[in-house]
Amino acid sequence: MPSRTDVYKYVWRLPLILWQGLFFVVPLLLMVAMSFWLVRNYRMTPDFIFDNWERMLTRGYVWNAYEVTFLRATVAAALASLIAFPASFALAFRVSETTRRWAIFFLIVPFFTSYLVRVYAWQVLLAESGPINAVLGFAGLGPFTMLNSGFGAMVGYMTLVLPLVVILQTFSLAAIDKNLIEAAANLGAGAAQRLFNVIIPAAKVGLILGAVFAFILSFGDFVSPFYLGGSKPPTLSILIIDTTKSGQQWPRAAVVAVMMIVTLFVVAFAAVGAAYGRRNG
Amino acid sequence: MRSGVLLRLYIAAVFVFVFAPIVTSMVFSVNSDRFPTVPLGHFTWDWYRTAFARPEVWTAIQNSLIVAACAATLSTLIGFATAYTDYRYGFRFKTAYLALALLPPTIPVVIMGLAMLAWLGRLGLSGTLTGIVIAHTVMAAPFAMAICRLRLNQMDAALEPAAWNLGATQWRAMRAVVIPFCAPALVSAFCLTAAVSFDEFIVAWFVSGLNKTVPVMILEILQGNVDPQINAIGTLVFLTSMTLVIAAQLLIIRRSST
Amino acid sequence: MSTSSFSLTRRGLLAGSASLVLSAPMINRGWAQDPTPINMLAWYGHAEPDMVAEFEAENNVKFIPKYYAGGDNMLALIAQSPVGTYDIILSDAEFVQQLNAAGYIEEMDASLFPFDDFWPQYQKFPGHWTDDQLWSVMVRFGLLGVSYNTDALTRDEAMSYNAFWNEKVKGKVGHFDWHLPSLGQISLLNGNNNPSPFDIDEAAWEAVMEKTLSLKPQVGGYFDYGGTFASLKNGEMLAMCGIGDWITGVLQKDGAPVASVIPEEGGIQWTESYSIGKGTTKHEIINKFIQYMLSPRGQVRSIQMAAYPGLSPTKSGWTAIQEANPAEAERSGLIEGHDQSPIKLLEEGRLFFRDIPQQQSLEDWNDFWSEYKTA
To answer: Which residues 27-66 of C have a C-beta within 8 angstroms of B?
Structure first.
C-alpha cells in the first residue's frame, strides 16, 4: 500500500518519466533501430544490417562535417558566454530589481519573433550591398563579405543563443548571496579575486548551463550554417537533411543522427557533472 | 562610476545586437522592394495586405496559438514537477532521472523531427496538431524545469519544513509556500516554453503535414520565393505575442505589489 | 493572495489568445458554402492565388498546399502520410517513375488531355507513359543554363559554362544545392551530349568529378531556392550554376541586373508534371483543374507564375502568351524560330531533359556532391 507520502512523491516524479519515456526515449530508440534498416526502392524495411554504418563512417566528408560542426559549436559556446557575461554581471549586480525584470523580459522578446525571420533579416543586414557595409563604406572600410562564411554562421548562432545565455547567467548571478561578496571584500579580496573566487564559483550552475545550451543549440542548428553560412562547408545537420533528400536514405541520416546524439550526450553529461557534481557548499 | 557607465553601454550594445534583426524585419515589412536592400524603396502596406488576405495565414496563426498554449501548459507542469522532485528528493537513479529531464534539448531539432515523425507516424499522430503539441512539450519541458529549478535554489530550505511543523500537510505546504514562491518562475516558464513552441519550425515542419503553424509557413516562404511577406507575418505575430507577454508581465507586477 | 497569480495570468493569456482567434477574419468568412478542399503537394507557388484563385472561384474549391523542397522530400512526405492525403501531386518529371514504382499515383485517362496541342517533342514525355498507360501530365518546363550578373559578365562570356571559372566571378559562383543540374551542366561542358549529359560512362564520370572539383575555389556557397534568389539579387553571388530563367526571370521583374542564357554547350530542361494521388476521391475536379492549367488561360498564368516563371509545352499556350504579353513571349523565347526557343534548341540537339544518372547510381552522384561541398 503506498502511503500518502508516496502518492505525493510520485505525483511530482512520474510526469516526467511517463511523458519523456513515451515521447522522447521511444522515438530515439526507434531511430537508433532505423539506422540498421534497409532501404530498397525508396522504401525502408526493418532489418539488422550494418551497411549504413559502414558506409557513413568510412566517408571522409562525414568526418569533415563532424569536425566543422564541433569546432563551430565550441567557438559559439565560448563566444556567447564571454559576450553575455559582462551584461549578465551588470544586470545581476548593477541595476535595480525592476530594471532587471524588464531586461529579462526584453531578452525573452526575441523568442517571440521567429528565428527564421531574424536570420532572414541578417541576410539583408550582412549583404555586401547591405546597411552595415554601407555604414562601413562611409568610414572608408570594406565592403566585407560577411554572408556565406563562418562569420555569417556565427552571427546566426549568436542570434539564436545569446539571449538565452544572458538569461541563464543573470538568474544564477542574481541568486548569489550578496553577503558572500561583501564578506570577501571585507576580507580584502580585490575585484578580480571576488570575481574568480567567489562570484563565478557561486554562479557555476547557470554559467555552465548557459555555455552548454549554446553549444548544443549551435551544434544542431541548421538554419544559420545554411542561410548565413551558405553551407560552406556543410554541418552535420545539413548533412542529415542532404542525406534524407537523397533516395530516402533515412537510415543513413539516422547514423549521422546517432553520432550527433552520442557527442551531445557526452558533452551534456560532462557539463551536468561539472555543474552539479561537487555541491557540498 | 565609470565602470557602471561602461557596463550600461555594453548592455545597450548587446541589446542592439539582439534587436537589430527584429527592427530590420519590421522596417522591411513596410518597404516596397521585393528583395530588400539599401537604399530603401517607398513605404507600403502591400506585404501585409497580401499576407493577411490569405485565409491560410490566419489558420496558421490559430494553429500556432493552440499548439503554443497547450505545449506551454504541459511543459510548465512537467517542468515544475521535475524541478521540485530534484529540489526535494534524493533517490536511486536520480542521475538517470535528471538526464531524462535535461537531455531533450541536446537532441538537434533536425534529429528530433526525424525521430518524431517516425514514432508519431506509427501512433497515427503525424500531421495532427496533437503531434506537434507532444513534440513541443518534449522539447520545451526542460526549459521550464531549468527556470523553476533556479528559482527553487533561492528558496530557504527551512521554509517548507516550517510549514509542516505548523501542521500543514505536504499538499498544503506546496499550495501555500512553494507555489507562491515559484509563481514568477512559473510565469516565466510558461512564457518561455510558449515562445519555444511558437518559434519552433523544424520539428513542426516534419510533423505538421497540412496543419501548418506560422513558422512552418515562414520556412516555406524562405525556401520558396523569399518574399517580404515573411516580414509582414513576422511583425504581426511578434506584436501579437508581445501584447500577450506585456499583459502577463503587468499582471505579475500588479499582483506582486498587492 | 499571490497563490493564484500564476493561474490568473495563464487564464489571462488564454483569454487573450482566444479573443484574438475569435476576431480573426477567417472565422467570419466562408462558413456559408464550404468550398471543397483539394490537397496539393507541390513546389512553392503552385497553389498561390495567382495560379489558382480563378479556378477556385469558378468551381467553389479551395487548394490546400503542402510545399516540398525537392523530389526526395516529396517522396518522404507521401511515404509518411496516410494513403489519399494528397489529391494532386506536382512533381519534377524525373520523379514520376519513382512515384509510380512506389504506387503513390493513379493511372490517368489520356483522352481527357489535349496532347494534340502539345509540341510533338513533349507528347510522349519519357517516364510519363508505360506503353499506352498515362501516369502524369507535363504542365510546364524551363531551361537551365548560365545565370549571371550582367554587370559582372557579358552575354558573350556567359555563352559557355567556362564562365564559372572566370576570374571576375571568383568566390562569387553559387550552386543551386542539388547535384543533378550542376553536375549535368559540367557534364555538358565536358562534351557529354550524346545521348545525354546524364548517360555517361565511368571515364566520363571521373572527368566530370575532376572538372567539378576544379571549380571549388570559385564557389561562394550552396543555396536552396530562396537563398538562390536572395544571393543573386543582393550581389552576393555573380554567377549561379544549376539554375536558369526560373530564378533570373523573377529577379529581372524586380529590376535586378541578371540574366540567363543557354550556352553553346547546351542546356538542361526541368519539367513539372501533375499526377493524381493514389486514393483520392476527387478525380473529376482534379482532371478539370489539370485541363484548366493546360488551357491557354492556365498556360498564360503558368508562364507568368509569380513564384517562378515556366514555359509552355502547348502550341496554344505560345499563341496565348504572344497575345497576352508579347514582351514576356519575347523574353522567354516562346516564339517559333526565336534563338532561345526551346523547340529550336531541342531540334539543334542543344537541350537535354534533366534526368537521373543512367550508368551510375543516384547515390554515387549524391555522394560525390557531398564530398564536393566539404572539399
So the answer is: 29-30, 39, 43-45, 49, 64-66
DSSP state of C314: B
Tell whether B32 and B53 lie within a shared domain.
no
Q: What is the mean pLDDT of chain B?
A: 86
Facing B249 at nearest CB: one of A13, A105, A127: A105
- Mind listing the pLDDT tens digit for each residue in B217-254? 888 888 776 788 888 988 887 887 777 667 766 766 66
pLDDT value of residue A41: 66
The pTM score is 0.83
- What are C207-257's pLDDT values in tens digits? 999 999 999 999 999 998 888 988 898 888 999 999 999 999 989 988 899
Looking at C96-154, list the stretches that DSSP marks H as alpha helix, in order from N- to C-terminal side: 96-101, 120-123
Torsion of CA B14, B15, B18, B23, to 10 degrees: -140
**End-to-end C-alpha distance for chain C, whole angstroms:** 64
Q: For chain A, say whether B116 makes contact (Cβ under 8 Å).
A: yes
Give yes or no: residues B80 and B185 share one domain.
yes
Architecture of domain A52-276: Orthogonal Bundle (1.10)
C-alpha C231/C-alpha B35 separation (Å) is 10
CATH-assigned architecture of domain C143-268+352-374: 3-Layer(aba) Sandwich (3.40)
What is the identity of the amino acid at B32? S
List phi, psi (to 5°) of C250: -65, -40
**Domain boundaries C36-141+271-337, corresponding CATH code:** 3.40.190.10
C345: exposed, middle or buried (C-beta count within 10 Å: 0-12, 13-18, 19+)?
buried
Interior angle at CA C373, CA A255 and CA A62, nearest 5: 25
DSSP string over B113-179: HHHHHHHHHHHT-TTSHHHHHHHHHHHHHHHHHHHHHHHHHTS-TTHHHHHHHTT--HHHHIIIIIH
CATH number at residue B145: 1.10.3720.10
C241's CB contacts (< 8 A; 6+ apart) are C146, C161, C164, C173, C174, C175, C176, C181, C182, C185, C186, C215
Q: Does A177 touch chain C (CB under 8 A)?
A: no
pLDDT exceeds cutoff 70 at C31: no
**Min distance C52 CA to chain B CA atoms (Å):** 13
Read off the amino acid at residue C115. F
Residue with cell 517607398: B42
- Using the beta-carbon criterion (under 8 Å), do C8 and B251 form an inter-chain contact? yes
Residues of C in contact with B58 (CB under 8 A): 24-26
In whole angstroms, what is the distance from residue B176 CA to residue A212 CA?
Answer: 35
Q: Where in chain C is the domain with CATH 3.40.190.10?
A: 36-141+271-337, 143-268+352-374
Domain that holds residue B14: 1-44
The pLDDT tens digits of the residues spanning C260-278 come to 999 999 999 999 999 999 9
Return the amino acid letter for C142: G
SS3 category, C116: helix
Same domain as B66, residue B8: no
C-alpha cell at A63: 568526418
Distance from CA of B179 to the nearest CA of A (A): 13
DSSP bridge pairs for C312: none
At C313-362, the pLDDT tens digits run: 999 999 999 999 999 999 999 999 898 899 999 999 999 999 989 999 88
The answer to whether residues B139 and B183 belong to one domain is yes
Domain boundaries, chain A: 52-276
The CB density around residue B172, as the number of other CB atoms within 10 Å, is: 13
Domain count for chain B, please give it: 2
**B87, B140: one domain:** yes
Q: Strands C351-353 and C267-277, how do they pair?
A: parallel
The three three-digit cell numbers of residue A118, written as one number: 531574424
**Cα dihedral sign, A88-A92-A98-A101:** positive
